[in-house]
């Protein structure tokens, strides 16, 4: 089993959801008492939120890059970012990090392609697929 490095804390509530979803999926796949093997690096969201608010995205990226490097040193085989917005700085997060990063946009695109959805639009709260 791969050891997953989780970058969390943005918010901690989101981190809990990722941890829960990963464990539920492992249980569904492997059954029994199996659970995800992971390392959680939780950042202080207060600092991240300040840099978001002041449009200092590079500083956000530096914080996440530090977290990614620490996860790699701790033995993680891959990295998942437990938030949506901060994928905006994923290029900074990955600087000098050698382990794979599972980007939410790549996984979303794969899910859409697997469902063979060519076009999707929303009109008055109703979703239409083409």
How would you characterize the overall build of this protein?
By secondary structure, this protein is of the alpha/beta class. It has one domain: Rossmann fold (3-Layer(aba) Sandwich), CATH 3.40.50. It is built from five helices and six strands. It has helices spanning 12-30, 45-53, 57-73, 90-93, 104-114; strands spanning 4-8, 38-42, 78-81, 101-102, 120-123, 126-129. The strands form two sheets. Strands 2-1-3-4 form a four-stranded parallel β-sheet, sandwiched between helices. Strands 5-6 form a two-stranded antiparallel sheet. Helix 1 links the parallel strand 1 (4-8) and strand 2. Helix 2 (45-53) packs antiparallel against helix 3 (57-73). The longest helix is centred in the N-terminal third of the chain and has 19 residues, at 12-30. The termini are far apart.
Please tag this protein with its features:
single chain, 130 residues, Rossmann fold, four-stranded parallel β-sheet, two-stranded antiparallel ribbon, 6 strands
Q: Judging by the overall fold, what is the CATH architecture?
A: 3-Layer(aba) Sandwich
Fraction of residues in helices? 40-55%
- Evaluate the radius of gyration: 17 Å
Give a quick account of the main beta sheet: strands, pairing sense, barrel closure: 4 strands, parallel
Task: Summarize it.
The protein is α/β, with parallel strands linked by helices.
Topology:
Layout: E1 4-8, H1 12-30, E2 38-42, H2 45-53, H3 57-73, E3 78-81, H4 90-93, E4 101-102, H5 104-114, E5 120-123, E6 126-129
Parallel strand pairs: 1-2, 1-3, 3-4
Antiparallel strand pairs: 5-6
Helix pairs in contact: 2-3
């Amino acid at each position: 089993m791969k050891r997953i490095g989780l970058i969390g804390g943005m918010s901690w509530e989101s981190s809990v959801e990722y941890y829960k979803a990963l464990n539920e999926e492992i249980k569904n796949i492997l059954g029994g008492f199996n659970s995800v093997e992971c390392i959680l690096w939780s950042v202080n969201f207060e600092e991240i939120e300040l840099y978001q608010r002041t449009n200092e995205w590079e500083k956000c990226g530096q914080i996440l890059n530090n977290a990614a490097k620490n996860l790699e040193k701790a033995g993680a085989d891959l990295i998942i970012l437990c938030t949506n917005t901060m994928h905006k700085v994923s290029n900074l997060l990955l600087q000098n990090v050698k382990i794979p990063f599972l980007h939410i946009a790549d996984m979303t695109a794969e899910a859409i392609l697997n469902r063979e959805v060519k076009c999707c639009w929303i009109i008055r709260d109703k979703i239409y697929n083409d």
